[in-house]
């Protein structure tokens, strides 16, 4: 995957865009489900064309499914590049934000991620 991130220390969020290459395993492939947790999904595209998307019901542990409908059908073996633009939540459990005062040098803020296997997607 191709991943681009922009960290906003003032708002405690990360704006991101990920490009996933997906291969159709069957004919007439036109939809996929991705896993999210506390993300604000702003847009989805497939091979550069806008794709419709919706977020399913939120589950406290499993997260929220992102349902993507491609603007075209794929045949078995074909590939599509799905791009998802999103923003994390300030309360994302895997992201830890430190103010400059909390760091050793006391001059710059700091961000790190820490999670267990079941929370790494958050």
TrEMBL record:
Molecular function terms, GO-annotated: aminopeptidase activity; epoxide hydrolase activity; leukotriene-A4 hydrolase activity
Protein name: Leukotriene A4 hydrolase
Domain of life of the organism encoding this protein: Eukaryota
Pfam families in the record: Peptidase_M1_N (PF17900)
Keyword Hydrolase among UniProt keywords: yes
Keywords from the named record: Hydrolase
UniProt GO BP: leukotriene biosynthetic process; peptide catabolic process
Aminopeptidase N-like N-terminal domain: residues covered: 2-122
């Amino acid at each position: 995957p191709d991943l681009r991130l922009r960290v906003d220390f003032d708002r405690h969020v990360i704006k991101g865009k990920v490009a996933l290459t997906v291969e159709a395993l069957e004919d007439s492939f036109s939809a996929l489900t991705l896993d999210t947790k506390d993300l604000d999904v702003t847009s989805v595209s497939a091979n550069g064309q806008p794709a419709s998307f919706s977020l399913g019901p939120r589950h406290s542990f499993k997260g929220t499914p992102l349902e993507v409908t491609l603007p075209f059908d794929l045949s078995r073996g074909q590939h599509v590049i799905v791009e998802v633009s999103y923003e994390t939540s300030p309360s994302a459990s895997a992201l830890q934000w430190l103010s400059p005062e909390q760091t050793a040098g006391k001059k710059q803020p700091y961000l790190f991620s820490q999670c267990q296997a079941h929370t790494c997607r958050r």
